[in-house]
Amino acid sequence: GDSWGLFTFLCAALCNLPALPALNCTEEPGAGHSIQKTYHLTRYLELQLRTLAGTYLNYLGPPFNEPDFNPPRLVRVERVPSATVDLDLWRGLTDNARLAANYRAYSRLLCYLRALDGQGTAELRHRLGHFCSSLQGLVLSIAGVMSSLGYPLPAGGSPAPPGTSPLAPNDFLKKMDDFWLLKELQTWLWRSAKDFNRLKKKVPPAVVTLRLEARGF
Fold first, then answer.
1. Structural domain of residue 148, as residue ranges?
2. Strand, helix or coil at 70?
3. What's the pLDDT tens digit per position in 38-86?
4. Is 163 within the bounds of a domain?
5. Which of 8, 48, 59, 81 could form a disulfide with 105 if both were Cys (CB 3.0 to 4.6 A apart)?
6. What pLDDT is stored for residue 77 in this prediction?
7. Alpha helices in the chain (DSSP H)
């Protein structure tokens, strides 16, 4: 009947249509994605370090685990990169300079932290190992941000092998080094989270590109 004829006509028309372009949306991660990921990683490490620091300071014992313990920073621990820079001076740096400073600092902090991995109880060693892996991920993530923004990695910023940190002359000074290492890590992560939060507001989000692909029947 008429219905069957109309169906046959439509099928014939569709089979003879030329190849039609298909519109596909592809999200390009770009710098914005890398910055967002790095920001979330710094916040995750901040939370992780709170638990780790409490556990490790309890392992060190008094006076290091006392809330009001705030010793002067010794000259020998100046090798641990300090985050105590004037905030106005820090914000006045270029994005490239701040990223390079973060990359160098976490590379060195990771070297010192790896020297702790192997101390204390099995639970503490597990937490230290997990934190080291996460911090290594942050170093690589910062490198990815710098690459996506077209910045070169700073020379000599790669993490040193485990066990290369200088040895303290006695047990108390060794504990003092460990105390300052955790204290500087906390400050660096706090400031880095603010750095990447500001940076992600400056860099546009991921770009969505439209691609036309020929599709035949």
1. 31-158+169-202
2. coil
3. 999 999 999 999 999 999 999 999 999 998 988 877 655 556 777 767 7
4. no
5. 81
6. 52
7. 2-15, 30-60, 87-91, 95-116, 122-148, 171-202
Q: Is 7 part of a structural domain of the chain? A: no
Structure tokens at 183: 């204290």
Q: How many domains does the chain have?
A: 1
Tell me whether residue 96 is in a domain. yes
The helix (run of H) or strand (run of E) holding residue 213 is strand 207-215
The pLDDT confidence band at residue 177, using thresholds 50, 70 and 90, is: confident
For 128-168, what is each residue's pLDDT tens digit?
999 999 999 999 999 999 999 999 998 755 544 444 455 66
Residues 114-123: contacts with CB within 8 Å, 24+ apart?
114/159, 114/162, 114/163, 115/162, 115/163, 115/164, 115/165, 116/56, 116/178, 116/181, 117/162, 119/59, 120/56, 120/59, 121/59, 123/55
DSSP 79-121: GSPP----HHHHHTS-HHHHHHHHHHHHHHHHHHHHHHTT-S-
- β-strand partners of 214: 21
Domain CATH number, residue 44: 1.20.1250.10
